[in-house]
Design a protein that fits this description.
It is a single chain. The chain has 389 residues and is of the alpha/beta class. It has one domain (6-82, 132-380): TIM Barrel (Alpha-Beta Barrel), CATH 3.20.20. It has 17 helices and ten strands. It has helices at 6-14, 30-40, 54-58, 71-74, 103-112, 135-140, 149-162, 177-184, 187-196, 198-221, 243-249, 251-264, 282-288, 305-312, 327-330, 333-347, 367-380; strands spanning 63-67, 85-86, 92-94, 126-129, 167-171, 226-230, 269-273, 292-295, 317-320, 353-354. Helix 14 (305-312) links the parallel strand 8 (292-295) and strand 9. It is globular. 45% of the residues are buried.
Length: 389
C-alpha cells in the first residue's frame, strides 16, 4: 500500500480499514517534553493550553490533541512547592506535604533531567481544596463559561495550520466522574456522598454535563475531527466504582453529550479515556457509539489485550496498551522493544489500533528507552511485515 497522509491513516483506522502502518499518538508532560526536545533540537515545548505539537509531529504523531478540559491547565502548570493556584472552576492545586528546595538544590535537580538514564521523579500537581462540598455550595456555584475564547480561539489556529495533514482532537478531560471526585467535590467526599447525599453528586454531574456539552459543541463547530472525553474510573485491578454505578451516573450523561455533539456534526468521532482497569464497561462504550477507547493501561482485565481485541476489535478501535508504569521508565532497551512487539501483536492485527504509551511519558523515563520505543514502533508497526503479516 502507498504511504498515507497522517490524517487519512488515522481516519481509516477508526473505520477499521486497511492502512500502511499503525498510527502513532505520543503525549508527554512538560518536564519530559523539554528533555526529549533537546535531543531533537526543538525549542517550542508548550503543553496543556500552550500546547505546541512540533516535537510530537517529529516523533511521528498522526494526530494533534489540544486539551481544554479541567486538566488542561493545572497538570501542566508550574506550581511552586508550598503554594496554591486556583483555576477557573475554583479548585485549588498545589504540592501539599512536600518540602521546598533551596535554589542550589533546585539547580542540582534540574541537572538530573539532562543525563541519560532515569531522571528523578518530578512532584506532580494535585487538587488540595474543592469548591463544592455541600448542597449550599452547589446552589451558589458559578460554572465556568463554555464560550471562553481563551479555550476556543487556539483551536481555530490549530485546525487552520495542521488539519490538511493531521487529525485534530480536542480533549475535554476530566469530564464527569473524575472531574467531580478529583476536582470539584474531593475524592473522599464523592464516594461518601454517593450514599449520604446522592442529590449533591447528581447535581454536580448535571452541571458538568451541561458545561462540557456546551464546550464540546463549540469545539465541534470549529471543525475538529474528534472529541475526547475522559474519566479515570479504573484502578489497578478493577474499577473504582461498580459498573452498575457507572451506568447510572455516567452512561446516560455521556449519551446526552455525544448526541448533542453529533447534532453539530454527524461525522464527529468520539474517544473515551480512562486510566486503570475499565474493561467491564467496554461493551457500554460500544453501545454509546464511541469510536476510540483507551489508553488501555495494562492492568486488571485490560491485561488480556488479545482477548479484548478478539471480542471487540471489529466494533471499536483502541489506543495505547504500552506500559508506562514499569516497562518504559524502568525496563532495559531490549525489554522496551519486546514490549512494543507484544502490544503490536495483541492489538494491531486487522487495523483498528493506534500505538501509544498507556499514559503521558513522564520525566522519569530515560531517553534511550524513548528512542527504543520509537524505533520499535517503526519496525513492528508496518502492515505486510512481521508481526503484522
Amino acid at each position: 500500500m502507498k504511504e498515507l497522509k497522517p490524517r487519512e491513516r488515522f481516519i481509516r483506522v477508526l473505520r477499521h480499514e486497511k492502512v500502511d502502518r499503525v498510527p502513532v499518538l505520543y503525549r508527554m508532560k512538560s518536564e519530559a517534553k523539554e528533555k526529549i526536545a533537546r535531543v531533537y533540537g526543538v525549542t517550542k515545548t508548550g503543553t496543556g493550553l500552550k500546547h505546541n505539537p512540533e516535537l510530537e509531529l517529529r516523533l511521528g504523531n498522526d494526530a494533534i490533541i489540544y486539551q481544554i478540559g479541567i486538566n488542561a491547565e493545572f497538570s501542566h502548570r508550574p506550581i511552586p512547592i508550598g503554594e496554591t493556584w486556583t483555576n477557573h472552576f475554583g479548585v485549588g492545586y498545589g504540592k501539599s506535604g512536600l518540602k521546598g528546595r533551596t535554589e542550589e538544590e533546585h539547580h542540582q535537580f534540574i541537572k538530573t533531567q539532562e543525563f541519560w538514564g532515569p531522571a528523578k521523579v518530578v512532584p506532580e500537581n494535585f487538587p488540595k481544596s474543592h469548591p463544592i462540598t455541600s448542597l449550599e455550595d452547589l446552589k451558589n456555584y458559578k460554572w465556568p463559561d463554555p464560550n471562553d475564547p481563551a479555550l476556543l480561539d487556539p483551536i481555530k489556529d490549530i485546525c487552520k495550520a495542521y488539519q490538511d495533514d493531521y487529525f485534530i482532537i480536542v480533549d475535554l478531560s476530566s469530564t464527569l466522574i473524575e472531574a467531580a471526585y478529583a476536582h470539584l467535590v474531593g475524592t473522599q467526599n464523592f464516594f461518601l456522598y454517593l450514599f449520604d447525599q446522592p442529590e449533591l453528586i447528581h447535581g454536580v454531574l448535571d452541571g458538568l454535563t451541561e458545561y462540557y456539552t456546551a464546550l464540546g459543541k463549540n469545539a465541534v463547530k470549529l471543525g475538529v475531527d474528534m472529541i475526547r472525553v475522559g474519566d479515570d474510573v479504573g484502578a489497578q485491578q478493577s474499577m473504582m466504582l461498580s459498573p452498575v454505578q457507572w451506568r447510572e451516573l455516567a452512561k446516560p450523561r455521556f449519551q446526552h453529550m455525544f448526541s448533542e455533539f453529533k447534532k453539530e456534526n454527524p461525522e464527529i468521532f468520539i474517544k473515551l479515556h480512562s486510566c486503570g482497569d475499565y474493561s467491564p464497561i467496554i461493551p457500554d462504550e460500544v453501545e454509546l457509539g464511541v469510536h476510540l477507547s483507551g489508553l488501555m493501561q495494562p492492568t486488571g482485565g485490560n491485561k488480556d489485550q488479545a482477548g479484548i481485541k478478539q471480542k471487540y476489535g471489529d466494533k471499536i478501535a483502541f489506543v495505547g496498551g504500552f506500559d508506562v508504569q514499569r516497562l518504559l521508565p524502568r525496563g532495559q532497551v531490549e525489554d522496551v522493544r519486546k514490549g512494543v512487539l507484544e502490544v503490536m501483536k495483541n492489538l494491531a492485527p486487522g487495523s483498528g489500533y493506534i500505538f501509544s504509551p498507556s499514559h503521558y511519558i513522564l520525566a522519569d523515563v530515560p531517553i534511550q528507552n524513548i528512542y527504543a520505543m520509537i524505533e520499535a514502533q517503526k519496525d513492528y508497526g508496518v502492515y505486510g511485515k512481521y508481526p503484522l503479516n
